[in-house]
Design goal:
This protein has four domains: 348 residues, 6 Propeller (Neuraminidase), CATH 2.120.10; 407 residues, YVTN repeat-like/Quinoprotein amine dehydrogenase (Methylamine Dehydrogenase, Chain H), CATH 2.130.10; 75 residues, no CATH class; 89 residues. 58% of the residues are buried. By secondary structure, it is mainly beta. The longest helix is centred in the first third of the chain and has 10 residues. Helix content is 7%, strand content 34%.
Amino acid sequence: MIQPARSLCLVYDGASRSRTPARRMLADRGKTPLRSSGAVSRLSAALLAALCAGCGPEALDWVEEDGYRWAELRVSGDDEPGFERLDPSETGISFENVVTEEQYIANSHYLNGSGVAAGDVDGDGRVDLYFTGMDGPNRLYRNLGGWRFEDIAEEAGVAAADRFSTGAVFADVDGDGDLDLLVNALGGPNALYLNDGTGHFTDGTEEAGLASTLGSMSMALADIDGDGDLDLYVVNNKVATVQDLFPPDVLQPSNLYRQTGDGFEILPEWREHFTLGEVREGMVPRLELAEPDRLYLNDGTGRFTPVPWTEGAFLDEEGRPLATEPLEWGLAARFQDMDGDGDPDLYVCNDFHSPDHIWINDGTGRFRMLDPLAMRNTSFASMGVDFSDVDRDGFTDFFVVEMLSRDQRLRMKQMVGGEPDRPFPGRFGNRPQKPRNTLYLSRGDGTFAEAAQFAGLDASGWSWGSTFVDVDLDGFEDLLVGTGHFYDAMDKDAAQRVGSMDWRQRILGFPPLRLSNVAFRNRGNLTFEEVGEAWGFAGDEDITHGMAAADLDGDGDLDIVTNRLLAPAGLYRNVGRAPRVAVRLVGRGLNTGGVGAQVRLSGSGLPAQTKEIVAGGLYLSGSEALASFAAAGEEMTIEVVWRDGTVSRVEDVRANRIYEIREPAAGGAAVAAPTADPEAPLFDDVSELLGHRHRENAFDDFAQQPLITWRLGQGGPGVAWGDIDGDGDTDALVGGGGGAGLSVFRGDGEGGFVPDRGARGGGAAGPAPSPGDQTGLVVVPGRAGATVVVGTATYDGSDRAASSATVLRASGTALREAQTLPAAESSTGPLAAADVDGDGDVDLFAGGRVVPGQYPAAATSRLFLNEGGRHVLDESNAAVLSGVGLVSGAVFSDVDADGDPDLLLAIEWGPVRLLVNRDGRFEDATAAFGLESRTGWWNGVTTGDLNEDGLPDLIASNRGLNSQFTASPERPATAYHTDLDNDGFRDVIEARYDEFTRSMVPVRGLLTLAGGLPFLRGRIQGFEHYGQLGVNEILEQPADLLPTVEATTLEHTVFINRGGSFEAFDLPREAQLAPAFHAGVADMDGDGHEDVFLSQNLFALRGEADRNDGGRGLWLRGDGTGALTPVPGQRSGIAVYGEQRGAAFADYDGDGRVDVLVSQNAAGTKLYRNTGAKPGLRVRLSGGPGNPAAIGAAIRLEYAGGALGPLREVRAGGGYWSQDDPVQVMGLAAEPTAVRVRWPDGSETVTPLDAPTPPEVTIDATGALAADR
């Protein structure tokens, strides 16, 4: 029966049509059997095509221009963006991918699905569709226009009914101007069908050299060697897994490997199937091998030659040829220019334990593995990859899809965990796999930061095909993901049940996992929101594998096609009518589709948009080679950079047009200008001057408290600068791990250092080390030498009665123990010093970091007054410091500008606490200054005058926004804590609010939580039951009655001092991509404005949590208004990839530039010499006898007309466990006329300066200049 005209041509007359009725019909249709009723007859299809004449792309009126042509698009649809899913009865596309029970029981790989390819096979201007399938013929649907299609696979010669077909791609492999078809199959035969230009194909597989019997999956094509034709990469998985080939008793470990003198080895008969992983704690992991991928070089005629893996075309990270071909579980691959050099690089998605591979092309078709530090992690079971400049910063980012569920109930049922959490301090050169989606942001220097959790893209369920498409045409590409699986292989309950079933039937014991598809809208700020239902893309719960994008109705936007298992193919019409520009390329020579070209649309009132033309590269699928961009305004330009570097430009581009751009003849267009040489980095890595490495002791935090958030014992070390021996040269200090002691490196006056080896060697100095980790460091210069105070942790299993800190005094070149501070219940964290009581000497604050075994119960801090050189516990402030919280960072600063030092504390599970000084007595002013409500996991705190108003602003480091944790005032991150099992240690249950269950649910999986609380095993009947429970049900009591801590914000924050209150602003996005510890303020580029530096990363987490490795040390450049701009690492020169902890500033070489010292936990200490900044003025203050460095003083430069620069305080201790050099380097906004100093006693001086500005001045308490050094 012929359908009514309304469903024949979906190009509207301008009126908006609601999608609600269509969605209601789809819901009704979902109740019918999944198999479709059959194809539309040829006669009906022809009649429908006639009825729709004029409503498809064939009606375009092309206008020829020099080097291109264009046509007006007929755009219509809805005001709101989204999709309308069309029924097979409307379209004639009745294909569904079928696999029988007999087939998938014999080989579960048949359930991994099949794909779809889009392209115009007959040259009529309409995009046709090819679907691959498992049981039965593949289908080629010719687009008749008006959303009607007819199956022509048999007559076209591409039905391929005799195989289990997987991937498909259209591409012109022989360069004759039409699209050929490549089809993969599990176990073969793979096929190359050559197009005669009319949509009729002949099988050219054997002649092309592409015959295969491997477990082939996806494909990608590109001109890898620059010879003008398309080369081919075929991803191979495995025809069948050993679990489908052999019964369990055959696969017993004793049958697979044997013990040898050197360890273990796989038995010879199993070496084609297995290799051994890393043996740990007696466990011998057996890793199943898969099959090698194949790279084929095209000779220009469509004949291909396989490239050997081991003959120099593929190099490892060190540039050495591979010794063996990888036998890995490939699922997808993509050619894409990842490093911006114009040639196609290669990303390969591998399943299971096989790591993903990133191959960087040198331009000749030779590939080298990406450096491990350039990309810190990958997804575990990587299904597919797609690329987009998601934040429109001009660099190409990419997304890899995995299987993490968005639903708490499913996630807890599927979640791993419970394994021993082995500490690996200092290990950061590896690339761990994460069981979730990953999003990689290009930094523009060939390195990437992973940001899926920040973006909200980390979970989409069991996912397969995914693609970036700008659905709402706002200039930022959105993300569509196909989901579902025939059975939930990750269901932990089912995995236990099926063990008793016949091994051939076990797959039937797992529940189905049909899921709704997912659509993520790009908000334009690197965050996404899920809008699948609102956009009409979620649809029924099903199993969607292949996905491709194509403009099926010729209106210039991209529609979506999906290949679903045991259900009709999905056809989604893009119904939005926002302005757009479509671009198609016509290449010269053999690369007729312009594959590898970069297309850029700019000047539209939207951010510049870029898209690379690719062939294949999606999971089992290939999209149409069309770029669709958002448009706005009248003045737009298209620029195409072709694969060979030539450039085409089209000016005066208008909205709602399609442009077909022809590649110019060789030499007929300008070659793309080479990228300008980047600015030289500001800092040089000179860490070899120290040659220092921090060593961590072997303490297992989780053995003491199994459910704590992170390994508190890996919090160090701190670092400090100061002139220890009074010789005028700055010395460096680094705290030690338990048993390692303090390391001191004395400046030699010539820009180098001499390690103070003392009696123990290795750079260690001072008295014998304590068994606990050294924490905060403070250096207080003195007339006869400096006083150094070193905090000591008693948290990490050491003697709880040990001293909490050690006071060392310099005697000549020696540091000798002068005093030990008494033990306390709380383990010491940060130290800070200032003249608290105004008596002219420097007093000491010791922050209580944690009560051992009782985290996160509040710790107690202490203040010690300096009485004649001895530090005496101050009882007058004991009450305000008792139970003040888990103090992670501390700094003294005159926040209220009354001339005495106030105390700021970074509290984990609390606010940044402000204690104002009232004549030596501290009062809690946290709430009064507006800080009380912003509770967080604050790590470090410092102050600096960022807006140059003379008041110290506050900078506090936190966990950041790129972890599994989220927090807001409405939905805070929460931890309930008490000793639930009466073993003397506090148990911690981290919880979050779950939108699905509308309750507080545990963050940790069942195995982890029950491992810490064994009594729960009797309450919870499996993983599914656990996933349905909230914390109240798990504990069988209201959790709110337990002691509770909360964090309402995880953002790193700057608090602008408004004089009596603070106004909070989040630090820039780049800062939020990793946890930060130290926060320091200095003028790093010497422009007269204060900058901020953050030390970043946290790896010391539970095994089921992600390593937070998105940072490498971040410089935020200030402009004097309070605004901060992130400076990329290639400009700063700072690249620290480990767990950064303390950091400190000093001009150690006396050149007027600020140098940076950064520690890493259990890794090398990094020293960066500043060589690029404008030299500033070194200011050295000479204070009274009890405080000769004038700790607590504040300095400002005065300029002509009375203008003042930022206020800089001289401090001892701050940020995170660290201290800057008391000699200040003041950046110069202009020629200063005077130095203003407010001294620790509140007095003020003004010291005039003569031009030209000297490199250094020393100022005494009267304001007089001392003799130049």
